[in-house]
Write a structure and sequence with these properties.
single chain, eight-stranded antiparallel beta sheet
């Protein structure tokens, strides 16, 4: 076991144990609502009534309940009942209600009964000297509280759970005090006796055991989980999923081939056992389950989790797998069980949710399993699965072929259908296009381009240009439209021109004027008439006045001046205060402009506005920069003399100076000599260091080598003479006779540290080393002074640290390069180590604080001054300071003007305003001077300040224009005088002007159009009007002459070259409108393209809507029918695996145990023990266990409980430690839940354990997030592959899921649009309680809102008595308030009590956020509760919603409804201040309130689509256009998720309702992954939601448009309730898509297997066949040889024991038994006749060589022969035991031996037989052929 797993197990165990003082099993405190102490009946009497007699006892209750003014219930006229307690009647009723509610909640949410009647209370201390006494209940009797109605008494009855001794107390006493509590048998022992036994155990502790009884809620079952983990560590260690969870294995991966799996192609119906419907996302999950992959199944609300689990379980049962389905929630288990029951699989499921585990019921269920009739599936049913596959393939082939891109165009048939649908109204042209399917997009586009060009140039050539009335025409292309325009325009123009000529002649004659009769002349005449009509009656004298122009100029001037004064004054008044008008504008402007000019010359940025706006910032920036740089120069000025270097005066110098200072800081850390400053010397020193290092290290190493063996005195020894003698006279062998040699060697040996002797070679080696040390040391000593000069203090002889020295040299060399000038003073400071290091460090620190180069660059970018880094800093500084002064003065001057201004403006505006003020004062002065002159100029027209200058100027201008008109047209004087004075002339001219203008305007457009056709068209305006009319008439009549101006031949040739010749000819022949030339070609092309392509797509080519509809109907029936077939097939398979209880009556296994229990009448074995005894049998009878996690640890103690699959539902609420016990029992684990829903919380443990301490649960939950923990789901998603369910089925209105889908699931869910957009009591509504108040300081509830909820509840029951209802609140306090409000209304009106019955399928409930997950109702009323308090203050604390992950709680609450959510609140969205909250949950609540109020529009910003007109294809657009043309109100892309209906028709009279939905076979149709989704499931869901769906098949639409249009209209009218239309032939158009009736025959799916058909083969053992009597004559009548007889016997009876063989062959040799002679004869046969043909093992069993087919052979009833146990080989015995174990259920080894012996015919099992079998059994264990689990034999096998 890895350390990680070990640590995790310890953590899990710790979490499962609770010995804290808040655990009421350890420290039982009596709270106000946590318990009831029973005072009567007595201790023993109560035990007798409840436990022994199992009687029902009644609590005191009130006959009448009233509600006082404060809403409290008042109990009157109490009835005594069977029990007396320590509480008054009112408190008792409230406490019993609270206890019952919490007990029921625990059952529903955790699958545990927590209501106990405790007998006995242990009073104990932790230490003898402690004053604190703890109370712990002793005997725990499980009970139930029942109540029939709100006014009925509470009744107490015994629960079927086991009566236990407080296990937590028992564990603590054993662990902490070594006290083992006595055993207790509730069937025999009395509680008093037990209390006395316990008292004797603890009396030495001075503890006491009190005889008292309490009714309370307790939870201790998790200690079973603790024990479960403790005893199953090996299982945990072997489980790969757990290993992955704790990080000891890599995350589990899924094979890539299982992703995006094509279910229809890769899975046959015959291979599936899905018993209920499944969409593709559900099929993905089922697939992984079948493949044995452990995974996480994410199941958002309403996506069919239970449906998927049902299918997974069915598939597993069919596959012979054992399944453990686990959920804490009773509802989750019950839903799946009900689904399995509805499909006939309940017989294979065992529900062991602990509160429902009743012995009698479970035994009865198991007995029923034994008696189930066997069935088999009929062949006709299996044939329907084959038919289903065929139909499914047909449907898939059509949609695949329809949408497969193909041919050169690489587009689909559907796309072409869409294009053709859009081209329906284009003319049909028949022509040929060879190989249409090979045409590419590029080629087609080129042809269309040429045709477009051609359509602009259609026309004919002429024969002569000279007389062509169209000469000089500018027309490039003659279209049909142009032809039509010529005809139309000319025909209407000529009569009008003649009338115009007549009017012209008449007017000229009347007025006595002469104007030419042309279009220009007409314009002149109209101008004259119009001018005269506008005469202002001016004096005739003005016409001849030569100064009229100057009068006009003066008038305009005066007018402008007056207007300017008014405008300027108003404008300046709007901008400035009064003192502004008193300033000297000219002087102020000059000063400001001067300062701005100076700034512009000094600062970059020519824009005055920008400069004025930023001058303050710029000024501060350059001042700050100046100060920073200047301070650096000042520091340098101080430090440079100390170092003996030049003081920097430029930025460039200061940068170099800074680098030098940094280098000095680095050099300070080394110890250079003077030589290092000489570059040549430094190179030499560096180059020599390696040699010197080697020299010194050699000396050091040699010395160390010598000293490792010799005393240090050897280094001072005069060795050299001895070395010379060794090198000379001691070389020869005779040295041993030389006394000096011995003396020298002895002297050398004397230096050895550890004694010993040296050989000659050792000695000379040592002497040579000493010589090397001496020589090298001499070199070092000689040069020591030089080395010191080179390396300074770093050199210390052989102890020199050369690496350090090298680093210092390297540092010095790198740093010295930054010192550009090294003075002698600086060098001395460095060498002597006297650098002013504190100054250096300070400068470096200052310098590093800002980037001088960057700062200087920034300064350069600001200042407009020719400087760089080489410029003297002092000059730059002075420039900056001067700039600062100018800037400050400018800022002051500008600010002074701004103070006069009412609002801020830019600089340019100020200057402009100063100019305005200056010009205003100038103009006012001039007008004052010229007042008298103006009065004398204009006489009557002048009226002082009231003068209408416009009128005056207009009159003067008219006089000027009249004079010009007289000169231009030589108007007679009489006419001129009439113009000035005669009203009748003016009126005549006005009337004629209108007539002429009308005629001219009527002609204008046509004349301009005609003129525009010619390059010289302007000449036509000088033509006589009648001549021009004649020219136009000729053009109209001879349009064909226009072809000379059009290069038609060129374009026609280009089309011919492109292969369009045939089509162009058709166009000419049919005179096709130019607008349709290209489209008509495309229409023909696409038809021919389809003809060429369709043979390759037979499904589309042979498509017929009627047949397709029939296929779909048949598929739907078959697809739905396959579930019933699957149900029968699963049952058939499961039943075949159930053992026949009557077939092996002698078996001594678990079957016998169960039979004994079934035959008992009383004293049944407890369920826990029963399941411990028959683990193998019970899993065979019921392969699917359905349990809570707690039940797993309670009932599945046996090691044999290993499951092929473990499924965890609602896993987001299960703690990891709670789940491990189930996970470890499974080979495959499926974690089902939703990470977006409720996490595990401490809600239940808090409500149980803390209640004795009177803790406000809601407050705890509101103020703390301690209740949220990581779930097994949260941990699993990190290590297991995921599959997500996507289709949402629950909501009957899309808005019920839309909010969660968009906000939480990122629009990943497939939801279905509602057929009604808005309707009362559907979707989401917000009920605002205006006067609701949150009682923050008191009960923490909102009573007014609770009463409103109660009203809504009763209104619901009145309006919708058949709709289920649930109430959800944010907190337990609000839950209680709502409950109280409803109780009060129930008390007042008992008629509604029927709606509150608890045993309905979907009973009414009131729950809070923490325990509503898994529930669903038709309508949910959701009470927020939180609101402003009595002081009107709105706090942003929303209890559980404010916690981390609060949005998950909201998600759960708002997705519980099928039809309607009524959100009830006392707040509006704006009451939630988003600036004051960080919780996503609270923010989402505000969004949800807005959504409830406004609908889907509230989420418009987050929608992934819009409500604009959108089409998936041209085909849909064509259908839409058709319906629009018929007057229908059509909406496209209906829905608010990924799935949308292509289009829908709104009902004209029923607001908000869609009459019919229309779907095409386009993108949405093609997007479905399976035929089921595409052709059945989706439409079925929509129709179930109230939709009428009509399907349009594009293929038929293109083939027969009129018929298909008629069908569509008929379907719409039918949906609208109108009379249906008829087709053209008089027949009614078929309704909707139901063109064909389903013809799938109804068959019997399964049939009963009669008992006579079940053949009992026992264990399948063969009868023993022996060669007796032996046949010694062959087929020819000859006597057989002995070896032939032996071969025959061995062949028949092998393996046969040698002795048995001898006995069998003895008669052939005249013997009655096997004598020695017979044995020897047989041996000879083996040696000489059968050698190599047979084998004999060590146990003397004989067989033919290579024989392996061992079979079990039992005695033949017709033969009295019985083989002795020793004559049966071990292999046969092993195979017999293995087979018996396989057919048995949990047989023990001893029983296995007995059964095996019986099979071989041994009626008695003596020691010899048992020992033989036991020895073989041990071998099987050693060979891993079998294993022992829980003392029972299991055969190891793999499926």
């Amino acid at each position: 076991m890895g350390q990680k797993l070990h640590n995790c197990i310890e953590i899990w165990k710790k979490l499962l144990l609770d010995f804290g003082k808040r655990n009421r099993l350890i420290n039982f405190l009596e709270g106000k609502r946590s318990n009831v102490k029973i005072t009567t009946p007595s201790f023993d009497r109560l035990w007798e009534l409840i436990v022994v007699n199992e009687r029902e006892i009644v609590f005191p209750y009130a006959k009448k309940v009233q509600v006082d003014d404060e809403g409290e219930e008042v109990y009157e006229t109490a009835v005594k009942g069977d029990i007396e307690t320590n509480k008054p009647i009112g408190d008792l009723q409230k406490t019993l209600k609270a206890l019952r509610y919490k007990a029921n909640t625990s059952i529903e949410e955790q699958g545990i009964n927590t209501l106990y009647l405790t007998f006995g209370m242990l009073k104990w201390k932790e230490r003898d000297d402690s004053s604190q006494v703890f109370s712990s209940p002793v005997i725990l009797v499980p009970v139930r509280l029942l109540i029939e109605s709100i006014t009925s008494p509470y009744r107490l009855v015994l629960h079927d759970d086991e009566i236990v001794i407080n296990p937590t107390l028992s564990h603590k006493l054993d662990n902490d005090f070594g006290i083992i509590m006595p055993d207790f048998d509730s069937t025999h022992d009395s509680p008093t006796e037990y209390i006395e036994k316990l008292q004797s155990k603890v009396e030495n502790k001075s503890w006491d055991v009190e005889k008292s009884t309490h009714l309370t809620n307790l939870s201790f079952l998790k200690i079973n989980m603790y024990k479960d983990l403790d005893r199953n560590e090996e299982k945990i260690n072997a489980n790969p999923v757990i290993a992955a969870l704790v990080g000891e294995q890599d995350p589990i991966q899924v094979s890539e081939e299982l992703n995006n799996f094509d279910h229809d192609k890769l899975t046959r119906p015959i291979d599936t056992f899905q018993v209920v419907d499944a969409d593709s996302s559900q099929q993905d999950a089922i697939l992984l389950s079948k493949k044995g992959v452990s995974f996480v199944l994410q199941g958002p609300p309403g996506t069919g989790k239970s449906q998927t689990i049902t299918n997974i379980i069915a598939e597993a049962i069919a596959d012979g797998k054992k399944v453990l389905f686990v959920s804490e929630k009773m509802a989750a288990l019950q839903v799946v069980y009900n689904r399995l029951a509805s499909v006939g699989l309940a017989d294979f499921c065992l529900t062991l949710h602990s509160h429902k585990a009743k012995k009698k019921e479970i035994l009865c269920d198991l007995a029923n399993s034994i008696n189930i009739d066997r069935t088999r599936v009929r062949d006709e049913a299996l044939a329907q699965l084959d038919l289903l596959e065929r139909k499914r393939n047909l449907l898939n082939e059509y949609q695949e072929e329809l949408h497969t891109p193909t041919s050169g165009l690489n587009i689909s048939i559907y796309s072409v259908n869409g294009k053709l649908a859009k081209l329906e109204n284009v003319p049909d042209v028949v022509f040929s296009i060879p190989d249409a399917d090979s045409v590419t997009s590029k080629l087609l586009n080129e042809k269309i381009y040429l045709l477009d060009e051609l359509s602009k140039t259609v026309g004919k050539r002429s024969e002569d240009y000279a007389d062509n009335v169209w000469r000089e025409s500018s027309i490039k292309f003659l279209t049909n439209a142009l032809r039509h325009e010529i005809d139309s325009n000319v025909a209407t123009t000529i009569p009008r021109m003649k009338e115009l000529a007549e009017q012209h002649s008449s007017i000229c004659s009347e007025l006595g004027i002469k104007i030419e009769s042309s279009l220009i002349g007409v314009d002149d005449l109209i101008s004259i008439l119009s001018f005269v009509a506008k005469s202002p009656f001016i004096p005739i004298e003005w016409i001849t006045d030569q100064n009229i122009d100057s009068l006009i100029d003066s008038a305009c001037k005066y007018k402008a001046q007056v207007e300017q004064i008014v405008t300027t004054t108003r404008e300046l008044n709007d901008k400035y205060r009064e003192q502004f008008f008193d300033i000297d504008a000219v002087k102020r402007k000059e000063v400001l402009c001067s300062l701005m000019h100076q700034l512009q010359t000094r600062l970059n940025g020519s824009d005055c506005n920008w400069l004025s706006q930023n001058i303050d910032k710029i000024n501060k920036e350059i001042t700050s920069t100046n100060d920073s740089i200047n301070s650096l120069f000042e520091e340098a000025k101080l430090i440079a003399p100390k170092l003996g270097i030049i003081t920097p005066n430029t930025v460039e110098q200061i940068i170099v100076f800074a680098k030098s200072i940094q280098a000095l800081a680095d050099i300070h850390r080394v110890h250079p000599t003077r030589k290092w400053f000489d570059s040549d010397e430094l190179i030499r020193i560096k180059s020599e260091i390696k040699v010197l290092k080697s020299l010194h290290n050699t000396v050091l190493e040699s010395r160390n080598s010598i000293l490792s063996r010799f005393d240090k005195e050897i280094l001072d020894w005069e060795f050299y003479p001895v070395l010379q003698r060794f090198r000379g006279e001691y070389k020869s062998f005779f040295r041993v006779f030389n006394g000096q040699y011995r003396k020298d060697l002895k002297q050398l040996n004397a230096f050895l540290s550890n004694g010993g002797k040296l050989s000659y070679n050792d000695a000379i080696e040592v002497l040579n080393i000493l010589k090397g040390i001496s020589d090298n040391q001499a070199i070092i000593t000689t040069n020591a002074q030089l080395y010191s000069e080179d390396y300074g203090d770093c050199y210390v002889g052989v102890n020199t640290q050369w690496d350090v020295l090298c680093n210092e040299l390297e540092t010095f060399e790198q740093s010295i390069c930054h010192l550009h000038t090294i003075t002698s003073q600086l060098r001395d400071l460095i060498v002597q180590g006297q650098l002013p290091i504190s100054d250096i460090v300070h400068f470096n620190t200052h310098y590093s604080q800002f980037n001088i180069e960057s700062v200087f660059e920034q300064l350069m970018s600001i200042l407009k001054y020719n400087f760089d880094k080489t410029t003297q800093w002092n000059d730059i500084r002075k420039y900056i300071e001067k700039s600062h002064v100018i800037a400050a003065e400018f800022i002051s001057e500008l600010q002074d003007l701004m103070n006069m201004r009412k609002a801020y403006c830019d600089y340019e505006s100020v200057i402009s305003d100063l100019n305005l003020l200056s010009s205003l004062k100038t103009i006012e002065g001039e007008l004052v001077k010229q007042k008298d002159i103006i009065c004398s100029l204009y006489r009557d027209y002048y009226n002082g300040i009231e003068t209408d200058w416009d009128k005056l100027i207009d009159a003067l201008k008219y006089a000027v224009d009249l004079r010009n008109l007289i000169n231009l047209y030589e108007l007679p004087e009489s006419f001129v005088r009439d113009i000035c004075e005669d009203c009748e002339t003016i009126s005549y001219c006005n009337d004629k002007s209108l007539i002429m203008s009308k005629l001219k305007n009527a002609l204008h457009k046509d004349i301009e159009w005609f003129v525009s056709l010619f390059n010289n068209g302007s000449d036509f305006y000088r033509y006589n009007i009648l001549d021009l009319a004649n020219r136009m008439s000729l053009c109209k009549d001879k349009k064909y002459l226009l072809e000379e101006w059009i290069d038609y031949c060129t374009n026609r040739e280009r089309c011919n070259n492109a292969g369009l010749g045939e089509y162009v000819i058709k166009v000419e022949e049919m005179n096709i409108d130019s607008n349709y030339i290209a489209d008509a070609y495309l229409k023909r092309f696409y038809h021919l393209w389809l003809d060429a392509v369709l043979p390759h797509f037979p499904a589309v080519q042979n498509f017929r809507a009627r047949i397709q509809s029939q296929t779909i109907n048949e598929f739907c029936e078959l697809d739905k029918g396959q579930f019933k077939i699957a149900q029968a097939r699963v049952r058939e398979r499961a039943l075949s695996r159930i053992p026949d209880f009557n077939s092996i009556t002698g078996a001594r296994d678990e079957i016998a145990i169960l039979k004994r229990e079934l035959n008992k009448q009383r004293r049944l074995m407890p369920l826990r023990k029963l399941f411990m005894a028959i683990p193998n049998l019970v899993t065979s009878l019921r392969p699917c266990f359905m349990m809570s996690p707690l039940s797993v640890s309670v009932f599945l103690e046996a090691q044999s409980y290993d499951f092929d699959m473990v499924i965890f539902d609602e896993a987001s609420q299960v703690h990891t430690e709670d789940a491990i016990g189930a996970i470890m029992r499974g080979k495959q684990v499926i974690i089902v839940g939703d990470t977006k829903q409720l996490p595990p919380t401490s809600f239940f443990s808090t409500s149980l354990n803390d209640e004795g301490f009177d803790v406000d649960t809601d407050e705890t939950i509101e103020d703390s997030d301690a209740g949220a923990y990581e779930s097994i789901l949260d941990e699993a998603v990190a290590v297991l592959p995921e599959r997500s369910l996507r289709w949402h089925y629950r909501s009957r209105h899309e808005h019920l899921i839309a909010f969660s889908n968009i906000k939480i699931y990122n629009s990943q869910l497939i939801t279905f649009p509602s057929s009604t957009e808005k309707a009362p009591d559907y979707g989401v509504e917000y009920v605002y309680v205006n006067d609701g108040v949150y009682d923050r300081g008191g009960k923490k509830n909102n009573v007014i809102e609770a009463k409103k909820v109660a009203d809504l509840v009763f209104e619901h029951f009145k309006k919708y008595p058949n709709r289920s209802l649930g109430v959800v609140t944010f907190s337990e306090a609000q839950q209680n308030a709502v409950d109280t409000a409803i109780r009060q209304k129930r008390l007042k009106d008992p008629h509604f009590n029927q709606f509150f019955i608890e045993d309905k399928d979907e009973p009414f409930f009131i729950k809070n956020l923490e325990n509503v997950q898994g529930d669903e109702r038709d309508t949910i009323i959701f009470s927020i509760g939180y609101a402003k308090d009595s002081k009107g203050i709105m706090y942003m604390n929303f209890g559980p919603l404010s916690r981390e992950g609060g949005y998950r709680r909201l998600n759960v609450a708002i997705t519980r409804a099928k039809y309607n959510v009524k959100l009830v609140g006392s707040i509006v969205p704006t009451d939630i201040d988003l600036d004051k909250v960080s919780s996503e949950g609270v923010k989402m609540l505000r969004s949800y309130i807005e959504f409830a109020q406004q609908g889907i529009i509230a989420l418009e910003k987050e929608l992934t689509f819009n409500y604009d007109l959108v089409f998936d294809s041209p085909f849909e657009e064509a259908v839409y256009d058709f319906l629009q043309s018929k007057g229908y109100n059509v909406v496209t892309q209906v829905g608010c998720s990924g799935f949308r209906i292509d289009m829908a028709v709104k009902h004209p009279t029923q607001s908000g309702k869609f009459a019919i939905g229309i779907e095409c076979d386009g993108a949405m149709y093609h997007s479905s992954r399976t035929a089921r989704e595409r052709d059945r499931l989706r439409q079925a869901v929509l129709e179930d939601m109230g939709w009428t769906i009509y399907r349009i098949w594009s293929t038929d639409w293109i083939k027969d448009l009129k018929t298909e249009e008629g069908k569509l209209i008929n379907a719409i009218e039918k949906a609208l309730g109108h009379a249906v239309s008829k087709s053209e032939d008089g027949d009614f158009v078929d309704d909707y898509n139901n063109d064909a009736d389903t013809i799938i025959p109804i068959i019997d799916i399964e049939e009963k297997v009669e008992p006579s058909e079940v053949v009992d083969t026992g264990y399948g053992f063969e009868l023993y066949k022996r060669a007796y009597p032996i046949n010694i004559i062959d087929e020819n009548g000859n006597t057989k040889e002995g070896y032939d007889i032996a071969w025959d016997i061995i062949s028949l009876e092998q393996p046969i024991h040698f002795e048995e063989l001898c006995r069998r062959i003895a008669p052939a040799y005249g013997r009655q038994k096997a004598t020695s002679v017979v044995r020897e004869t047989v041996r000879d046969i083996f040696r000489y006749k059968l050698n190599g043909m047979i084998t004999e093992d060590k146990n003397e069993f004989v067989r033919i060589k290579d024989f392996t087919d061992i079979k079990v052979r039992i005695p033949n009833p017709d033969d009295d022969y019985l083989r002795p146990i020793t004559y049966i080989c071990d292999e046969e015995l092993a195979l017999a035991m293995k087979t018996i174990a396989q057919h048995s259920f949990g047989i023990t080894p001893d029983d296995l031996f007995i059964v095996t012996a019986r099979e071989f015919g041994f009626k008695r099992t003596g020691e010899n037989i048992i020992n033989s079998l036991r020895n073989v059994y041990k071998q099987m264990l050693n060979n891993d052929e079998i294993v022992e689990i829980d003392g029972k034999v299991c055969v190891e096998h793999t499926r």
